[in-house]
Every structure is written in structure tokens, then in C-alpha cells.
Model the fold of this input.
Amino acid sequence: MKKIIIILIILLFPFVSSPAEESAEKYYGTGSADIINGDKDQARQTALDLAFKDVLGQAVGILVKTESMTEDGQSIKNQIQTQAKGYIKKHKIVKESTKKNVYSIVIEAEVYEEKVESAFSSRISKFIEKNYFNGCTMSVNDTRYAAVPNYYLSISFYCMMNDPTIQHDSVNIFLPVSGEHIPKITTSGIFSSVVLEGETVSNADFINKNPGPSKLLPDVLSLLNDSRKTVTIKFRHPVSGKMTEQSVQIPFNFNIAQSDEKGKPVYYHLFQNVSWDAIPSPARTEILQHLKTFPEYRLKMIERASQAQKAKEKIDEILLSCSIRISLDNETDLIYDSGKRLFYYLHTTCQTTGTDTDVDIKTVKLHMPSGKVISPSATRTLDFLRDENNSAESSYIYQPEIPNAGFTIHLIERKLDGNIKSLVYLQDLIQIIKSGPNIKVEYSSQSGRPLKRKAHFSNFIITIRDQALEKGFLTLNGEPGKVNESQFKPFLNYIDKAD
Done:
């Protein structure tokens, strides 16, 4: 009875597939072939063989990606594809057609996956025995922007390590000029890479660290000058335990850019994973010349960077940025008991060059050329007033809305009547205009540490109104320390003749 039931079940369900069959991977392959001398059968067979290769290429391609193989995985894939038909488990024709004397075919197929994996693994094993390291490249990034000025050189070396059992600390790289280097080994899963992060040289590094010249550039030039040269990798053999070496040919990644003083590109070369001989000759010439001139170019840019740094340091020495205004008015109608009076006005404004939060403003002292020392006593903005009724200095205190926003010093001197020469600060301001833009500033930090910097006078304006002058007025302006003597002389003569 049991035997009858089993037979009935088999007869009732003859087409039920096993789970393994349902889950089999299906691939779609295409192939096309020319019909030669009207032989359609031969064209069809050729197209079918190409479709088989297409199917197998897809199956092996998955393994290549899984194994993180690149160029060498593709080579193994090509080897297996030459015997494609032996790996096809079954197939069916989906579509076939003839158009313009070309026979085309589309198939759906399954492959012997274990057989494909076994063939791939055996070839990988043989490959690894001869190539413990592969996929080696040297990357050179050299960009120069003369308008900034800026330069950037980066050189690095990369290799894939195919056998995860190689002892990492036994790996050394030998370059043709600089010799032995200990690389960095990076690991992702079971795969490892050998990385020689050579160096990065730039003008920013010069300012901060002052590095020496490129150590790996001579190696790059040596490899480019003789494409037969190789890089040697020494390591402890994973089976024998003996030190072994493998020589590898080096393809390059190039990113070479050059712009002129105006920022206009001179040339730009970008090549990825190519042998030196495969690069077009004109590009090779420019790249080689570009790299050869790096030491000279770097020295030139270092000098420019050094000058820029010195200029910055000079600016950093300045605490206050100042301007001078001198107004001498012999025409102002101010009516007092004694009648018409004259008006003289000196105004020097000094502001902090930045947000100097560490300055104790109450300790600031300005050393004038005559030896006079101005000692303001306020928190932020300071006004110094001097007139005939109050010869003592007085201050006006103003607290800005933004905390720690720096401070401003106003040195103001006003005088009604009297001799121009009696203006207390006039000769000091004339001396600053004539001789130079800087005077000494002393102050203390908030912690009480005494410091010295400079007050820099960047501009001046002089106006005189007097009918005794040829045009009735005189106006001068410019930068202290860079005064045109012939233009400044009328003003000095006016002061000398003043009563």
C-alpha cells in the first residue's frame, strides 16, 4: 500500500523542481557573427560560442569582483572563457535573427558554478605563487599656481598584497635611488595593500615645518628615464619562511598642472594607471620637464612664501592703524567779545588692526617722535582734548556695543587764536608725515605682561584756508614717509611764516 502511494505522488507531481534547481543562477548571453559565403550554420555556431563566452564572462566577472581582482583577474577570466562551452550546464535559445548578413543570437543559460569557482581558484593560486604583489602603481600629483603663489607635490606608491599570510613587518620596498623604505600595510577583510605614503611638499608646509626637498622625486625621474627599471619588494615567504624578493613594473597615475602668473593654465595632464611608454610623446616631454624643474620652482616659491611671511609678521607687529588730519582755518568767522578769531584743528585717529582682546587699554602709551609719551586711561574709545581754556588732557569714554571689538584713540587738539606753532602735537605729526609711518606703542596684556608693538600711520590730510595763499587754500594728502618734498614745501613754508 505504501509503495502504491509513493508511486502515485511521483506520477501526480512529475515536474516539481528541487530547491537547488529553482535557485540556480541564470545568465543571458549574446553573440553575433558575419555570414561568410552564405554559410548560416557556421555563423550560427560562431554566434552561439560567443554567447557561451559572454555567459561565462558574467559568471567569472562576479568572482573577479568578489576577489577584489582587477587587471590580473581579468586575465584569468579571459583564460577560462576560451573553454566556455565546457562550463555551460544547460541553455536555451531566447532569440535569433539575421540582419544585414550578420547572424545574432540571445541565450539563457546556467553554468556549473562549482566547476567555474574551482577553475578560477586554481588559476588564482598559480598566479599568487608567481605574484605575491600586483596592481602596483605610483601616483604623482604636482600642481603649481604661480599667481597665488602656490605649489603642491605629492608622491605615493601602492601595491596589492595577494597572500594574507605574508608577515606584514617583513615587507620592505626598494626604490632605484632612495633605496629601502618601510611601507604602511592596510587591511580590508582578508586583503591587504602595501602603501608608501611618500610625502607631500607645499609652500604651506614650508611656512609651518620647513621640510627638505622631495626625497622620492629622484626615484620617479629614474623610473621615467628608464622604463625597464623596476621596484623591488622584499618579504618573508609565507611557506619557506625565507626572505624573498619580487620585482614589479610600475604604471603611473599623473595629475600634472601648471598655471602662469596671471592664473592662466599652461598645461594639464591627467593619466590613470598607465605605463610611461603608453603616454603620448608630447605629454611625456612636458611631464618630464615639469618634474625636473620642481626643485628650482620650489626654491622660487619658497622665496616668495618667505617674503609673504615676513610681510605678515611685519603687519602683525602693528597694534594700531592711524591717520592724521590737520586743519588750519584763517577764515572761520567765530564772533566773540574780542571779534573775529582763528581756528586750528589737529586730529589723529588710531584704531586696533584687529580684535585685540588681550590689550589692557589703560596701559597703552604712544611714543611720539619728540619724546612725548601719551598715556591714555580709558577702556575702549579715547578722546584727548587740548584747548586754550584747558591745557590739561581730558578723556571721553565710549563703550562699544560689541564686546572685545578693539579700541580707538582720538588725539584731538583744537586752538582758537594764538600762534600755530603753539600747537602741542603739530611738530610731532609733521615729523611722522615727513620721516616715516611708525611710532612705538607700549602696553600690557590683560595678565600684566609688558609688550611692545607699533602704531602705523597709513595716510594724512592737510587743509589750509587763508586768503594770504595764492589760491586761498592748500590741500595735501598722501602716505607718511612717502611725501613729495616739492608738494610738501608750501605747507612747511606756511608754518615757518606763521606768527
User: Anything to note?
Assistant: Residues 87 and 395 are 99 Å apart (CA to CA). The chain has a mean pLDDT of 76.
